[in-house]
Amino acid sequence: MSVVLVTGAATGIGNLTAVTLARAGHTVYATMRDPAGRNAGHADRLAQLGADEHIDVRVVELDVSSQASAGRAVDTVLTDAGDLDVVIHNAGHLTVGYVESFTAEEIAHLIDVNTLGVQRVNRAALPHLRTRGQGTLLYVGSTTSITTPPFLGPYVVSKAAMDYLAVTTAYEVGQLGVETVIVMPGAFTHGTEHFPNASRPADTDGIAAAYRSLDPLVARNEEATSSLFTPGADADPQAVAEEITRILALPYGQRPFRAVVDFTNSDVETANQTVYDARADFVRRMGFGQLLDLATPATPVTPRRPTAV
């Protein structure tokens, strides 16, 4: 079983993933912002669940917008567990609105959380994973990188940027024994706080008024999304947690680079394969085909694990 750090584990997919992995026997560090304050209720519920079910889920503070916070969280895990096997990048935020209504600063803030937060956590965790010569970076991406739904412009941009950060990072860390997995959830209209907690642009210039004719489309965005589901399908985000748990149960080095959990029948897998084939051909013609495969360092270092945690 693995020592796993999950970002954004207060609610939604991150929370479900932390609990599901702990129930499967992993030692899980469920990280979140301000667990003693704004997220105290979420932190307490996880702690109580761990005690009630005798599963190993531990709450650690981590704000992905702070490099210092990411470093402290990883240090806490290493001090407490003596090792770290898997980092699950899940923290993220949703915005809804007309693209022009968002200031550049508002979009930059979203990218800072959804994309650069991943980079901060990687910079905190990778020194350890590189030293041990083995580990897994698992990114919770989004099918929006392929489907590009309307009225979510800045969110789509930030998730696409995160996806390609994961892909390009994989070329390099894979040669040092660190594997990459990108899990792409489709749309979920219940079971997370994504839509209820979505941000809107401040729009102090009143630009949204120019798009008022589109307001009825925005108003039925969730309904329109739900209409894509196969009738009778249980579009529950728990499916994402179960897929992540299934993947981490596979032998190291045999885990898929991408996995899609989608109930909207959007054929994202086909698009992913087409893009991969084009990318792989380009990289091979450059003479860098080895970067597409996970390498196993000759002398990986096995960190010390405490006998009791």
TrEMBL record:
A Pfam family annotated for this UniProt entry: adh_short
Domain Ketoreductase: 2-191
Regions crossing the membrane: none
InterPro entries tied to this protein: KR_dom, NAD(P)-bd_dom_sf, Sc_DH/Rdtase_CS, SDR_fam, SDR_oxidoreductase
Coiled-coil stretches noted in the UniProt entry, renumbered to this chain: none
Superkingdom as given in the UniProt entry: Bacteria
Family, per entry: Belongs to the short-chain dehydrogenases/reductases (SDR) family.
Protein name, entry field: SDR family NAD(P)-dependent oxidoreductase
Originating species: Acidiferrimicrobium australe
Taxon lineage: Bacteria, Bacillati, Actinomycetota, Acidimicrobiia, Acidimicrobiales
